[in-house]
């Protein structure tokens, strides 16, 4: 049974009115795997049960973010359905973070900057990755994945090199300088105890990025 706070109920009702949505809160839902307090699961429905488009979802997500809430989504295969997750926004003020990426991406990143993932560039076929940059606050060291030093940038780079949708084993780590960036929000990832999510308005400039190998 989900425990939905009064604040969550209020923002859900406001979103339904603003967007003309029907937002269903699952009455029975396995919350044992939830990592964060006050996280809840929902179904978002358009009129006549039409599928929410990508552009529409981004507008809804940004609306929630402006009001202090994270809206994310996951595509589950059994049964095949998209679930929407809501939680209070926990903003982090970090001077730097570390981002794992494929080596083949580095040249374009260092010339054009680092942009949030798209459906085509995501490392996994997961809907929650779209529109985000994932990062780790801790760099760690080589061998962290084998040594089970969970959640460092090296751990992520080694994990992703072993399995990703591109079947690419060549990965590296980028150091991102976040000091003074005003058009970016950094918050705790709903689906990770150690990772953070970056949502910049514009690309993170190459001058703020350093490839570490």
Q: Report Rg.
A: 18 Å
CATH architecture of the largest domain: Alpha-Beta Barrel
Question: If you average the pLDDT, what whole number results?
Answer: 90
Write the H/E string, N to C.
Answer: HEEHEEEHEHEEEE
**Name of the CATH first level of the largest domain:** Alpha Beta
Q: The CATH topology of the largest domain is what?
A: ADP-ribosylation fold
Q: Percent range for helical residues?
A: 10-25%
> Which shape, going by the Cα principal axes?
globular
Report the major sheet.
Answer: 4 strands, antiparallel
| Count of alpha and pi helical runs | 4
Q: Give the count of structural domains.
A: 2
Structural class of the helix and strand makeup? alpha+beta
Uncertain spans: none
Structural account:
With 213 residues, this protein is an alpha+beta fold. Helices cover 21% and strands 27% of the residues. It has 4 helices and 10 strands, in the order H-E-E-H-E-E-E-H-E-H-E-E-E-E. The protein starts with 5 loop residues before the first helix and ends with a strand. The model has no long low-confidence stretch (mean pLDDT 90).
Topology:
Blueprint: H1 6-19, E1 22-25, E2 40-45, H2 54-66, E3 69-77, E4 80-88, E5 96-102, H3 106-112, E6 133-135, H4 153-162, E7 171-177, E8 184-188, E9 196-200, E10 209-211
Antiparallel strand pairs: 1-2, 2-4, 3-4, 5-7, 6-9, 7-10, 8-9
Task: List descriptors.
single chain, 213 residues, ADP-ribosylation fold, 2 domains, four-stranded antiparallel β-sheet, 27% strand
